[in-house]
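Hey, quick one: can you model this chain's 3D structure?
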Amino acid sequence: MERAIIHLNVADFAVAVERAIDRRLADRPVVIAPQGAARAAVYDMSEEAYRTGVRKGMALARAARLCRDARILPPHPERYERAMRALLQRALPFSPRIEAGENDGHLFIDATGTGRLLGPPMDVAWRLRREIRAHLGLAPIWSVAPNKLVAKVATRLVKPEGEYIIAAGEEQPFLAPLRLELIPGIERDDLTRLREFNLERAHDVAALRLEDLQVPFGSRAMFLYETVRGIDPSPVLAVGEKPPAVAADHAFATDTNDTDALLAALYRLIEQTGGELRRRRRAARRVAVVLDYSDGARSIRQAAARPATANDITLFETARRAFFRAWTRRVRVRRLRLVCDRLVFPPAQLALFGDDRQHAEKRDRLIGAVDAVRHRFGGNALQVGRTLAA
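Sure thing. Here's the predicted structure for all 390 residues.
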């Protein structure tokens, strides 16, 4: 049976929710950011502010200079959470498989096999949009495609409003003319390397054989080969199904509170989870560290990864912050557990500043090279020095 995946996307979700509450904000630039903080960063922005150069994560002071007439509002996460629950409630009658984003206005709805009961998937999407607009005051854009990857790209193309339908068999022709930055999962290092070969659009990469990609891209070759052809077998999660996460744990042979041994074990867990994330073609937005002490006590702390990452070096920096938040006792540690969750497609946008971009590219190339060596010669072919203390 041909799959039919609906992707609903309320563009600039936080701004859309604020506008649904206060109609005076319509058609004017809006920036959402915590006010009063010394290093406040942009949480979300309207399309009008985006056109002036404002981006998520940008320093609020810089955003205010770029868009001087913007209305600056503090974020209200509880409002966005309620709005997401309301969106989910409206979609529930149409499918048992609905995968919601994290308070970001995104819903994937698996409409496969529901035609006899509910009609064609495009009719379902249209009815959903009409209901959401009438009852919630939000106007989602939507797409229908054979898989999540293509559906997500389609809504990116019609933002800030519109709809797009891609039939089965049209995935590769649909993606062919698009710039590679628009395709989820293609990372910054991939973009840099592809540009070195003068490959900038999906059809440029699709013209290559898998063997041609394996030399410069190693373990990433199969992912690129499938992605530019619109191949994505990942399922839509069932309602209430636990969001995917990657976890690993280490039990010490002898309880310890030696810093080097603990950090060595932590990096080994990072290598396990980072490798699994890259195999799944996902990046983690949050890292949690769980410490079990000798006396039975447990400590759990977490840290956000900004931007989302699957790079071992960057993941370790995030996990290290969480580790030292959790490790506050002198009692020896018996077991260490690492959990990477809030998984997303790896961000493809290049860093804004040259030094940051070069630093990120070096890290990605290094981990890519390590993956390639281990894939060819085995997991123990290369070891990071810090892990030898474990």
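One thing worth noting: The first strand starts at residue 5 and ends at 9.
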